[in-house]
Amino acid sequence: NAGVTQTPKFQVLKTGQSMTLQCAQDMNHEYMSWYRQDPGMGLRLIHYSVGAGITDQGEVPNGYNVSRSTTEDFPLRLLSAAPSQTSVYFCASRPGLGATNEKLFFGSGTQLSVL
Amino acid sequence: AQKITQTQPGMFVQEKEAVTLDCTYDTSDPSYGLFWYKQPSSGEMIFLIYQGSYDQQNATEGRYSLNFQKARKSANLVISASQLGDSAMYFCAMRGLSGTYKYIFGTGTRLKVLA
User: Fold this and answer.
1) Bridge-partner residues for A43, per DSSP?
2) Number of Cβ within a 10 Å radius of residue B77
3) Residues of chain A found within 8 Å of residue B44, distances taken between Cβ atoms
4) d(C-alpha B69, C-alpha B87), whole Å
């Protein structure tokens, strides 16, 4: 069972470069989300999606774009990386609102450094 | 607005002893869900336990129990019979169940189990 798969696991960027963090899930989950984890700040929600074609902003959306063209994939784009975006990024998914299972399923994380 | 507060940045516990990790929350949602996740040094996020605000009994999962005190707005995690493998970062989280998909996480408590 693959669950939630994030790629890459590690990435180093130079300031101003762009890149896409990939997230895919094989559980047919309607909901997918991106978090960043910084020391002393816990996990903060960047963007989330409740289904294909539907996305919304979380607590810290600036500097990040998302789209959801399929149920399985939810990529996170950094258009012009900044050192402040150095962080560990987690993708998480769950079944839709109608499901009784409230649990979030997490990917293994992507460690991003912006120099 | 929703908020999760974990006031213990770090804690120590002797192996085989019980330990309580504190979590307080604030929300205007009439119904909500509360979670605890464990993050070992390897970095993955491991779901531990869930409590719905409407649940009459406190949730338990093996050695983990959630001490839910609605009037105090607290959702403390109790780990019984601590093991060395319990050394990790622990995050409390919440989701309001009125329709938003936004999960809010606390800043975490780092637990160290001593042999």
Assistant:
1) A37
2) 27
3) 106, 108-109
4) 25
Q: How does pLDDT run across B15-62, given as a tens digit for each residue? A: 999 999 999 999 988 889 999 999 999 999 999 999 999 888 999 999
Distance from CA of A94 to the nearest CA of B (A): 10
Phi-psi region of A42 (alpha: psi -120 to 50; beta: other; left: phi over 0): left
Mean pLDDT of A46-65: 94
Helix, strand, coil percentages (3-state) for chain B, rounded to 5, are: 5, 55, 45
Cα A7 vs. chain centroid, distance in angstroms? 10
- The pLDDT of residue B102: 86
Q: What's the rounded Cα separation, in Å, for the pair A58 and A74?
A: 15
A91 exposure class (CB count in 10 Å sphere: 0-12, 13-18, 19+): buried
Residue A99 confidence (pLDDT): 65
Q: Is A99 on the interface with B (CB under 8 A)?
A: no
